[in-house]
Amino acid sequence: MGKFVISVMEGDGIGPEIVKEGLKALEEVAKRFKHTFEYKYVYVGGCSIDRFGVPLTQETIDTILSTDALFFGSVGGPKWENLPHHLKPEAGLLGIRKALGAFANLRPAKVFRELINTSTLKKEVIEGIDLLVVRELTGGIYFGEPRGFSEDKKKAFNTMVYTNEEVRRIAKLAFDIARQRRKKLTSVDKANVLEVSQFWRNIVIEVSKDYPDVELNHMYVDNAAMQLVRNPKQFDVIVTGNIFGDILSDEASMLTGSIGMLASASVGGKVGLFEPIHGSAPDIAGLGVANPIAQIESLAMLLKYGLKLHKEAKCVEDAVALVLKMGYRTQDIATNSDKKVNTTQMGDLIAKAVSEV
Ligand code: NAD
Ligand code: IPM
Ligand code: MN
After folding, report:
1. Where would you tag: which of 118, 152, 176, 226 has the fewest CB atoms within 10 A of its CB?
2. Would you call 162 a catalytic residue per the annotation?
3. How many A from CA of 34 to the centre of ligand 1?
């Protein structure tokens, strides 16, 4: 019987549609486990630009920091894409990750038995995969200086930079997680070309000395992208930098059948941020067809990593699994024989299952 305050950021595009379904499940968790959740609605991204003229305000940061966790929808869309970089919705998301000190982004990809035929890959390739991408989230080329356009606009540049401390802390976290799983860690870099990757690799090797029980291997990112579709079962935990992790986790999502299935937890600071890995999906916003499962699985991660409510997290995960087992599917994961449902129906079914599983 706990009392928790949650920051809720619905966001842009499909964000509000799927966050609503996440909160339905959370209300069922509240009833079943006799918790009280108070919600503080905050705005980041396009919805903040429309209200306050900027994608993130200090007041929003302060509000979030006063709560127990941030439940985050998605940001962005064509309406704001021509703004200067620091005023784009995406700058708001990067800003809140940085402000929270959320340096580690955990993106688990597991295949539900029921969805084995939904993937574009062969059944034998994906059956039983269970991998975790640990993406460094507050450094690398996303944040490196200098960046920008030359004055004559004939050049543009970004800088990929990592400090010893940044690599060390993400490597340690990844080793700690690997130790609790199948004890295999793959560090992905581009050390054959980039100095920053060579530096990354050397530090990962140094950190590995404290983890003799974890098997470490290194892979260049181009090979890793190929191996993920060739033989994804070889992976347990993948640790990598910000931009490589962004790309590889979208790729990993298709092993599970749809990007609408992949959740994430961004941790390392005082308040964690929990969001799907997908974006605001402007192409389907407002149509009521978005898959809310990535958002609902992000809720499970919020319960587990943000509030340390392990039973409650498991209950939400089991509810999702049960509804899939019953054959209900949003259009992105549906095959012909499935019971097709829209976003709200899927959310209702999962919320009901939370009270029953
Ligand atoms: P996207 O992830 O929004 O969409 C890619 C494709 O996946 C689209 O066809 C979309 O319809 C589909 N898709 C995504 N989520 C889905 C869901 N839950 N159910 C069913 N289908 C789903 O990526 P994009 O189109 O490259 O980007 C759109 C906007 O989102 C951009 O402004 C981008 O910057 C932003 N974005 C935000 C986040 C975030 O808020 N964390 C993440 C990625 C992209
Ligand atoms: C993600 C997104 C973001 C990223 C964008 C929207 C800033 O693609 O969360 O994966 O690149 O980190
Ligand atoms: Mn991404």
Report:
1. 152
2. no
3. 34
Closest Cα to atom 7, ligand 2: which residue?
90
pLDDT surpasses 90 at 337: no
Which domains does the chain show, CATH number per domain? Answer: 1-105+271-357 (3.40.718.10), 120-256 (3.40.718.10)
- Select which of 12, 24, 142, 236 is catalytic: 142
Average pLDDT over residues 114-137: 93
Q: Which residue stretches of the chain are H helix?
A: 15-33, 46-52, 58-65, 89-100, 123-126, 164-180, 195-208, 221-230, 242-253, 293-301, 310-325, 343-356
Distances (CA, A) of 305 to 32, 99, 298, 302: 20, 18, 10, 6
Note the pLDDT tens digit of each residue in 195-214.
999 999 999 999 999 999 99
Strands 3-11 and 156-157: unpaired
Residues 9 and 67 sit within 8 Å (Cβ to Cβ): no
DSSP symbols for 221-269: HHHHHHHHHH-GGG-SEEEE-HHHHHHHHHHHHTTTT-GGG-EEEEESS
211 is catalytic: no
Residue-wise pLDDT for 77-86, tens only, equals 999 999 999 9
90 lines ligand 2 (CB under 6 A): yes
CA of 35 to the centre of ligand 1 (A): 32
Tell whether ligand 2 has an atom less than 6 A from the beta carbon of residue 44: no
Q: What residue type is assigned to position 136 of the chain?
A: E
Q: Taking the CA of residue 130 as centre, how many other CA atoms within 13 Å lie in the half-sphere pointing to its CB?
A: 8
Q: Is 142 a catalytic residue?
A: yes
Per-residue pLDDT tens digits for 20-47: 999 999 999 999 999 999 999 999 999 9
Among 246, 304, 305, 338, the active-site one is 246
pLDDT given for residue 312 in this prediction: 98
Q: How far apart are CA 20 and CA 14, in angstroms?
A: 10
Q: Is the ipTM of this complex over 0.90?
A: yes
**Residues lying with their CB under 5 A of ligand 3, a single-atom ion:** 246
Is a pLDDT exceeding 90 seen at residue 281? yes
- Does the C-beta of 91 come closer than 6 Å to ligand 2? no
Average pLDDT over residues 277-292: 98
